[in-house]
Amino acid sequence: MRVIIAGGGTGGHIIPGLAIARALQAKYSAEILFIGTARGLETKLIPQAGYELKLVTVGALKGVSMAKRARTMLDLPRSIFAAGKIIGEFKADVVVGVGGYASGPAMMAAILRGVPTLAFEMNAVPGLANRLVAKFVSASAVHFEDTKKYFRNPTVTGVPVRKEFLQQPEKHQRERPTILVTGGSQGARALNRAFREAAPELLKRVPGLRIVHQTGERDLAETKAAYGHAGVDAEVSAFVADMPAAFGRADLLMCRAGASTVAEVAAAGKSAIFVPFPFATDDHQKRNAEALTTKGAGLMIVESELTPERVANEVSSLITNRKRLNEIGAAAKALSRPGAAEEMAEMVAGLTQRRNR
Known about the structure:
Elements: E1 2-6, H1 11-28, E2 31-36, H2 42-48, E3 52-55, H3 66-90, E4 94-97, H4 103-113, E5 117-121, H5 128-133, E6 139-142, E7 154-156, H6 163-166, E8 178-182, H7 189-205, E9 210-214, H8 220-230, E10 234-237, H9 243-249, E11 252-255, H10 259-268, E12 271-274, H11 284-293, E13 299-300, H12 308-319, H13 322-334, H14 340-356
Parallel strand pairs: 1-2, 1-4, 2-3, 4-5, 5-6, 6-7, 8-9, 8-11, 9-10, 11-12, 12-13
Helix pairs in contact: 1-14, 3-4, 7-8, 7-12, 10-13
């Protein structure tokens, strides 16, 4: 079985794709090829994971000028042609679209060539790439029941996560309390600013607190300087390569609420304070967070209320209460779908068998 996984841009698209790839290899010895663009994290994460990556050129459609959007639309046939050439040369049996820049052209090319397609949508409301192909794909895998209405042949699978998130070590109570702060692979400016300003007060309330902070590239220098000026000893990096290990060290996370992040928190059974990105399409990050917080499986601070004082209060009250941390983590774990990647691998195999028949 030869499978192409298309998409990328952010870790939220790439990491589920890698989980699907591993499940396909483990169960079906599938040959895997990724299609992405030179603009996203796929150029780093996919080769690191040992997979081949082919690139197509795709312009942006969101958050750009009308002129740029028009140019992207004019270039789209070229992108579809380039993706189609890759699909043909690889002799793909199925193309899986995980969202992001390269997903749309690759899925369109597969549909035009008659190659079976599986669309994966992790958010409550589909992103642009999936909206373009939603009614033409062979099948689809979604995270939320309400998302099924957008797609052809949908199945609720949950979000695939790496198995390392499911196999978290038990943290010894005598270890220093640790908080992991992450705004995702690209960082989150509001979250970075609020937490670094809250850190001095937090350390007064929780002596010995270990802070592990992933800032994204653009806020790295400013955050390091702010911590240094305040005398805060924190582990600060632009990107955490081994996120499952960082989860394992953490007692509490403070993070955005992208679907991939929420799924990883649940899989790892961790306590988290979610700060949804307020400008996400249809406010889907808030809806992602509510899927946990309404069931006692996390806390949420909306960005308009994200002050250093609120951060210090929420973090200090939670991280010093081991019983509550454990209760929230257990509630999150109960909501996880650990077999999502394997279920999607079975869907891919089914599409391959149907095509061969």
